[in-house]
Amino acid sequence: MKLKLITVMLLTGITSIAQNFSITDVRVEEDKTLNALVFKIEVEGMAGDSVPTAIGELDGAPVLGYVIPTTLVATDVGFGATDGIIALAITSHPDFDDTPLWDENLDADYANDGVVWHSHWVILESNPDVPGGLAVKATDEFSILPPTNPGMPMYMDSPGFNVIWDDHVISCVVPLNRMNNQTDFNYDGVTALMNVNTSDPDLPMLGVYEVFSIASGDLSLPYDVGDYTCDTLIINVSSESGLGLIAPYDVKVYPNPASTQLTLDMSADFDFGSYEVQITNLIGEEVLSVDLDSPIQTIPLSDIGADGIYILNILDKVTEEIKGSKKLVLN
Length: 331
What we know:
Distance between the termini: 35 Å
Helix content: under 10%
Largest sheet: 7 strands, antiparallel
Shape: elongated
Number of helices: 1
């Protein structure tokens, strides 16, 4: 695991913090040498650099997560057969440690490193009692959990998978023999704030209280292992949300790599007419400029040029400020 200095800070109205949870890409890649899958979430800012501020108790403790929900089934990852969404969650929470078998900060104390980003398998289910609409499913006396579970009354495992965060990407390496050798499944990417509850019997023990970003936009789990078509450009020009995080306009750019045409898909509240797409080659020469004036626009690759690598910029038409950039591959 890569260790680095982590600054503990409140989630306030700071654009750089918002960008640390604004998803630009999600992918699951098979590494045949390691016989493992590498789960990755890429964000506009610095992945893993923002963690919750401790409140000093378990009840109400904040949990930040980079989450990859999947179409796997419970028995693939060691749970007994049950309904729900199987998700790999990479989390940070300074108020408690739920990985008693692992010493993530390597200080020989196995109970003090919940703030260090670490991995969980969880089973999520719909729950209208929390603002985010999802919660980790509660267990009962008949539930079957993997032996590496943290001993909490919900479908959560602490498998100890290697988590690496560097620059814009946070990754988790999952050996295939720890997930029933499954490579044929769909997935999505989500960043979210969760909270622990130990005092209100009407609320789940761990619920989702705010969703910051969804790779697909609608949690439809459209991506396949090895399918890298999620390419979402986040533009931070919108109003602040309740936690002070920027609620950005979304421009989805797909597919990337592209072979026939490029599609630009804008969110419903996008400020049409205020922005333009500029595509340049790698030496900065403009090859195409298009106004963003409708919800979905397509660009034939013949309008861009030969196969190769280009840079797509979203510009404010008035100030000409670049609001976001993405590398494009044409083949």
